[in-house]
Amino acid sequence: MSLFDRGTYYFYLLLLLLLIIGSIRPLLANSCTEQDYCLGIVVSDTYITPWDIDVDPSGHSLPKGSGSYDQGLAIYNQQCIACHGPQGKGGIRMGEKLRPLPQLVNITPLPHKSIGRYWPYATTLFDYIQRAMPFYTPKSLKPDQIYALVAYLLIENNVISKDVILTNENLAEIKMPNRNGFVCDIRPDTFNLACMQDCLTPKDKGFDLGKIVMTDSKSLQADCLLLPE
Amino acid sequence: MIKPNKKQSTTDCSRRNFMLKSSLFMGSGAILLSSLKQQVIAAPKILEVPIWSKSIGNPVLHHSYGLPSNFEHQVIRRKSNPDDAPVEYVPSLDQASRSFTPLADLRGVITPNGLFFERYHGGYPNIDPQKHKLIIHGLVKRNLEITVERLKRYPSINKIYFLECSGNSYSNWGENEGSSVQGIHGLVSCAQWTGVPLSLLFREAGIDLDKAKYVIAEGADAPSMARSIAITRALDDVFVAYAQNGEALRAEQGYPLRLIVPGCEGSINIKWLRRLEVTDTPLFSRNETSKYTDLLGNDMARNASLIMEAKSVIIAPSGGQILPEKGFYEIRGFAWSGRGSITAVDVSTDGGKNWQRANISSDIFPKAITEFTFPWQFTGEKAILISRAIDETGYVQPYTQQLLKSRGHNYGYHNNSMQAWEIETNGRVQNVII
By its UniProt entry, which PROSITE patterns does this protein fall under (chain A) (predicted)? Predict the structure, then answer.
């Protein structure tokens, strides 16, 4: 005697199997033997590509492409000039007392932090334009357009000659004038004792202003940004 | 230095009552103008029963998300006022700008979420958490994609940490051009953050500890703000936060995910965090080369000067306020250090000649704001109030002139020098150089 005929029996068996497979499917899809909590989904390098936009000084992750001064000038005058001004000498002001928008070439006496004077790596220009510019439409430029803009800006900054065609092959080779202009942080750079009574202040004669503590080749602070040797 | 406002105070009692009433109307941000004679305000003959005691109040859910009393409407974040700031200090575009926390109105160590200072490089995005993901890749055994919902299921931590913009107090660098504690020092705030340690997430991804030297953290905002962090620091106390003071991060603070790098300059605490790439080389992004590096007097520049050193500031009385009368005031202020805990705060009321230890009036958490108080009588004599923080490393907060000597005038970020407030005989409080 059976509660079910054969057909019904197989139907319920199939349903049970489907339920079991359904319940373990997420585990099968995402092997967790190596993750303690099994909450991350393992994904491929290709999957990440659209977000993986950083370009470090090695230039390894530069996309294929090329651009010239003339091409860069045309794009600059269309996309950049409104904020950065003609030839990067810009500094457009939105108000009399407000800070002008960044200039991109050296036009004022030191100190300034413009590209040719201050930036240690040319790859930074590609990286920044690719991720952040133009200000109101970031990530809208194609690689060739970015190479052209980088070429234009490096030439306006007198870093490379006007006939250079910039590509993914030669961008990382460019030696920026200020490449060796950075040192590690060596703070603390003041060494006061907590005087409590009859203390001198900077207004008093004999107050110890301390010493100039700018560089120290022995110090290698853990946070320092250094290229691999 | 700003010139004292010559506006006359008054000794007239009816005027005094009028000022009191109008200041109540305007809320706590308003300041009483009055004579300095300590006197009792002429009281009505008998107490009135106010209208709110004779009428029914608002029902529950009058505001489904609660708001401060409308009498506190002056306690808000503010932008720099171009008329009260160094030349070219105020950015041209509000999407690449900052707003300052009203420090003088805060109590205790936690900054309310709506008053937490803002700093963006391309506006703040409105991110749908269902569509947001955190990617971990690079020198790891397996690339991981973690949804916001799943990130919240990992074992979590709650930590109180300050955040300070490295450009905070810049207007006091050499020239004391700001006037209020909000406008000069308001790019610091403190919150309890909830999240998951990077060390845990990197273990899940199978980090290659032999090769890993840096992690590049990147945001999902328009300019995809990116910074490199040394792996030793990343594995120490850095974490991915999703909550702030008991609720989800505010959009201004990185909703749905941000990095917290305790004790380090604000800009490396990447907001709207979308990607962590473990590498053997720093990125040298624009915001760790062209910006957020410290140009020294010898034309060299420091990179990765991340730690916000020990600092304190008196928030009451502070610049722009006017003491309404002679008498007792509790001097109150904040102290913090990116190197650990505050161990002591000293206060001078005579411009730095003599110092006394302040009371620590809050719990002390490492790399968090600590509150201090100091009892003080305003006698109507000129006084110069200064506070000085000391942290667990023994470091003593310096004078601005000492930092200028050590670093040169081109610097400007990481100004942790002492703030002096001069109390004029008329009770007016001013920002002065010592």
Answer: CYTC (PS51007)
